[in-house]
Amino acid sequence: MLTVNAHPTEEEMLLYTDGELGSRRAAQIRAHLSACWECRARLLEIEATIADFIRTQRQYVDSQLPPIEGPRTLLRARLSEAASKPRVRSRQWFIRLTFAEITAVLFCTVLLILAVSGKYLFHHSAESTASPFAAPSWLGTVPNPGLTPGATRTVAVSDVCSMPHEEVVAEVSPQLQREVFQKYGIVDPQPNDYEIDYLIAPGLGGTEDIHNLWPQRYTSQTWNAYVKNSLEERLHQLVCAGKLDLSTAQHDIATDWIAAYKKYFHTDRPVPISVQPGSPSSLVVRS
Amino acid sequence: MPPTDSIEGLSFPMIADATPSAEPSEIERDVMELFDQLRNPLLRYAHSFGIPMHDAEEVVQETFLSLFRHLQLGRSRKSLRGWIFRVAHNLALKHRHAQQRLCEITVDDGTIAERQLDHAPNPEQQLSFGQRQSRLLAVVATLPEADRSCLSLRAEGLRYREIAAVLGISLGSVSISLKRSLARLMRAEGR
């Protein structure tokens, strides 16, 4: 325990001046400083060095910073362009197909669906009632384990955690997206309906392999792509915080992602993004 | 075009050309708001990796485009400042790596690579500073990269837990690194 006569270490002084100490320890150091001229002088030296560094760095670097107006205009234009494009990781491929190709693909795939999954056409659900030719009701909520068992690469936790989860998500190539839709017998996927999703996210060591990709519905009312994205992010955080084994995370999400969501969010229903812990409604950056 | 510290030649669109036809969405407005708050801190941080200013500017642009996609996908808005710095950190490393590769290909003797990774002010810049400031910058330039990143992030106002998340290190490592760097700066100042 810190007594009045024990001088705080340099590290403690820095933590104290940066407001990073617990309240109890901070109070002890404050009491010590009020009694110790020597430590107050040390603290002032630390503060003076910080002030010198900041002043010098700003003077040196800020003089080189270009005005913000041009970059702001450029970013606004880029955002506007990005907003007008379809979402990444989803269906851009069919826009590039010719009419003949679309017709051929539609015809073949409709036949395939009728032949293979006819029994599902008579099932109704809240998520799939628009057309008798719509995909079966389970489709888009969970992957077919026979078609999408999941595939991983050999990767160290440090590699997985060296980048934000979103940054390791690569865009699936149009060819691969086409193959996934074909494999699942989905014809004419509508804009904003599906995301070609990694069953095991790249941020968890999943690979861009047809055995790890499946068409997940954005429009499912309960267990949709947004919910799974939340799960992927949660698992990535747990793994990187050392609270969950990477292979367990891979296994759980590949086996039954809905069960995994319930397990790791401790709920039977998806938590709305707006009420998830730490989801502020505004984007004010706090110091 | 070879990398340069000059910002001349950067092509920003004319305002009239760039004005979007539709009203910006709420996400676009949020991103622009954050850009106004964080562009300079991010630019300073990206530049601290020794990449030219116009490349650092591109890193910042890419960072905010990533943020836009992040928000568009409805992902978490928790700890956004740390998230933004983490993305900028990774992109800056990527840019620098690409730049080094380019230099390895185009310059056999490596002089350009060395020049670009030299963080200390050049003789001309030193003239505009006092001796003490130049010495301080020289000490910063010789810090190990992880220490320099810690110091730069703290200088931009990030808390220790945010720095730890950006750099993928523990809280303890952050405080040890900052203590080490400040000790070196204090020695350089004769304290």
CATH superfamily placement of the largest domain in chain B: RNA polymerase sigma factor, region 2, helix turn helix motif
Task: Please identify the structural class of chain B as seen in this structure.
Answer: mainly alpha
Number of helices of chain A: 10
Shape of chain B: globular
User: How much strand content do the residues of chain A show?
Assistant: under 5%
Q: Main beta sheet of chain A, described? A: 2 strands, antiparallel
How many structural domains in the coordinates of chain B? 2
Strand tally of chain A: 2
- Which segments of chain A are poorly predicted (pLDDT under 50) over 5 or more consecutive residues? 88-96, 121-137, 274-287
What CATH architecture label of the largest domain in chain B applies? Orthogonal Bundle
How many E strands of chain B?
Answer: 0
Helical proportion of chain A, percent range = 40-55%
How is the main sheet of chain B built?
A: none
What characteristic shape of chain A results from the CA principal axes? elongated
The helix/strand class of chain A is mainly alpha
CATH topology call of the largest domain in chain B: Rna Polymerase Sigma Factor, Chain: A
Using only CA atoms, what is the Rg of chain B?
Answer: 18 Å
Distinct helical segment count of chain B: 10
Determine and state the CATH class of the largest domain in chain B.
Answer: Mainly Alpha
Oligomer class: heterodimer
The termini of chain B sit apart by 45 Å
